[in-house]
Specification:
With 66 residues, the chain is an alpha+beta fold. It has one helix spanning 9-19; strands at 36-38, 44-46. It has a two-stranded antiparallel sheet. A hairpin with a 5-residue loop joins β1 and β2.
C-alpha cells in the first residue's frame, strides 16, 4: 500500500479556508499545465518549485510512502 503522504496543520487550515488548489509559495492556482505537489514540510506548492534551486523548495517534494 502506498501512503499519500501528510499535510501540515497550516496547509489543512488553508484547505478549509478554500485554498486547497492554491500554491502556498506563490499564491497562484494549480493547473494541469502547472500542477501542485506536496512538499516535505506538508505544504501544497507547484511541482516546478521542486525543480528550481532558487525556490526554497528545491528537491523537497514528498516521495510515495513517506
Amino acid at each position: 500500500m502506498i501512503s499519500m503522504g501528510w499535510i501540515s496543520k497550516s496547509q489543512q487550515d488553508r484547505d478549509h479556508s478554500g485554498l486547497r488548489d492554491v500554491c502556498a509559495a506563490d499564491g497562484k492556482k494549480g493547473s494541469k499545465a502547472d500542477p501542485l505537489g506536496v512538499s516535505d514540510t506538508g505544504s501544497r506548492v507547484h511541482k516546478r518549485h521542486f525543480e528550481d534551486p532558487k525556490s526554497g523548495f528545491f528537491g523537497g517534494q514528498q516521495k510515495p510512502g513517506k
